[in-house]
Amino acid sequence: GAGVSQSPSNKVTEKGKDVELRCDPISGHTALYWYRQSLGQGLEFLIYFQGNSAPDKSGLPSDRFSAERTGGSVSTLTIQRTQQEDSAVYLCASSLAENEQFFGPGTRLTVL
Amino acid sequence: GQQLNQSPQSMFIQEGEDVSMNCTSSSIFNTWLWYKQEPGEGPVLLIALYKAGELTSNGRLTAQFGITRKDSFLNISASIPSDVGIYFCAGPRNQAGTALIFGKGTTLSVSS
Asked: A35-78: per-residue pLDDT in tens?
C-alpha cells in the first residue's frame, strides 16, 4: 500500500501479558517513529529510528518498552508485563524529511 | 522540557463560520507543523512552516509562523462539516530534529 500500515488495529490483553505491535512504513522512508496517544491527549514520543544509526530511545517510559526495526523497514514495538496505564493508541510514522511525518492509523491497546 | 500550549481546547461552531486556533511554545522553534486527526485515524499533515513570519495556505486553511518563533496560528475559513476533527500543532522535539512534540489538540465541532 501507499501509506503507513499498522497491525493489529485493536488489541485487548490482560495485565501482565506481553504484546507486540507492528508497523510497516512507507517504502523508501528512512526514518520511523513510534508515539503513544492517551485519551484526550496529544502524541507522546516513544522511539525514533533513522537508517542504520542507533535509535533514539529517550521517550520510552520504562524498560518494559522496547522496539526494533529489521532490515531498515518493518518495526515492532514490544511491551512486556503490560499495565493498565499502558492502554492507549500507539501510532507509527515514517518520513524522508525529518519533520514531515506520515502516520499510520494506530493500534488501540486495551489492558484489562 | 519543551511544552506546547494549544488553545482553545475545543470549539463548537456553525457551518460557514471562520475558525482560529493557536499554539505557543516555551522555547524557539525552527519549524511549525499543523496536523488534523479524525476518529480512528492517524494525524494527517495539513501545513508545514519553516520560516519566522511565513504565512502559508492550503485551500481554506491558513497558518502563520509567529515572528517570535514561539507561536503559530491556524485559521480555517468558511468551515464545513468535514472540518470536524482534532487539530494538533507540532514542532521538533529537540535541536537534532528527531521526532516531534505535539500540543494537546483543539477539538473542532461543526454544526450544519
From this structure: 999 987 789 999 999 988 889 999 999 999 999 998 879 999 99
Q: Specify the 3-state DSSP secondary structure of B21.
A: strand
Run of H or E including A83: none
CB-neighbour burial class of residue B13 (10 A; exposed 0-12, middle 13-18, buried 19+):
middle
Tell me which residue of B37, B43, B31 sits closest to B95, measured CA to CA: B31
For residues A4-26, average pLDDT:
97
**Per-residue pLDDT tens digits for B37-51:** 998 899 999 999 999
What is the amino acid identity at position A15? K
Chains A and B form CB pairs within 8 A to the count of 60
The answer to whether the Cβ–Cβ distance between A56 and B98 falls below 8 Å is: yes
From CA B106, how far away is CA B70, in angstroms rounded?
18
